[in-house]
Amino acid sequence: MTDRISVREAGHGTPLVLLHAFPLSSRMWREQLDELPGADGSEARVLAVDLRGFGGTELGDDEPSLDLLADDVALLLDRAGIERAVVGGLSMGGYVAMALARRHPDRLSGLLLADTKATADTEQARANRERVAAAVLARDSVRLLVDEQVPSPLLGATSVRERPRLEERLRAMVEEASPRAVAWAQRAMASRPGSLDVLAGVQVPALVLVGEEDAITPPSDAEAMAAVLPDVVLTVLPAVGHLSAMESPDAFNWAVRGLLARVEASG
What class does CATH assign to 7-120+194-266? Predict the structure, then answer.
């Protein structure tokens, strides 16, 4: 486990842990930290985590594994004095949230899965992850990621057309990622197992959220997760791509407030 986990925090109510997408950091949750606790998230306590290697959290020397990131989140909860939290992740963060559900199910009071999927990588996807990992290390640069993923496919077509400032913000965040962290995360994601069996056993309220224009984990992936979760709401956001929390923060926050209300009612 990493010694220091960097986290941004706002609010004081029901704990909501947010786990960022690859290759970003907790900075992607700016509008959630600023706006989600209020009207009426009942002032939720939002904790936006920097996963190891990103933002302010050191990478360390462990072999790549999403299970380590899930254990980091459990450790963060311990240190924050939080017994159970609503845990939410977008894309890679969703993979970590599912790993937490597998390894530490007793720490969940609710589950948010945004723009992610519960199936393991195909051989082709694994090979592509290794291509990227090897390239960024060899070049000591994440330029390849910027060129291949910004603005598309990380952003939806509507965002690319109508939200140029968002593209600038995203580009700056991707450029901040370290090659070592990018390679580590790609290899960790490539080795993750499928999680549909885990989701079928989740006993807390869940929200599956996806952008209608998500080209990386499309609505069909969201539907597959929603089909097995016992207590779930599926929300598809129109005119939104893969980074739904950044592309349409008001709609994203509205949906998450609905999850928080369900958690409160079930508690």
Answer: alpha beta
Structure-model confidence comparison of residues 41 and 203, the more confident one: 203
Task: Read off the pLDDT band of 12 (50, 70, 90).
Answer: confident
Distance between CA atoms of residues 92 and 167, nearest Å: 20
| Matching residue, tokens 């090979």 | 127
Domain boundaries, the chain: 7-120+194-266
What was the pLDDT predicted at 220? 98
90: β partners: 114
Q: What is the pLDDT of residue 40?
A: 65
Peptide bond into 193 cis (omega under 30): no
Identity at 51, one-letter amino acid code: L
What b/e readout covers 40-61, taking b as 16+ CB neighbours within 10 angstroms?
Answer: ebeebbbbbbbbbbbbebebee
Q: Is the pTM of this model over 0.85?
A: yes
For residue 153, say if its preceding peptide bond is cis, omega within 30 degrees of 0: yes
Q: Is the dihedral of CA 128, 57, 96, 215 positive or negative?
A: negative
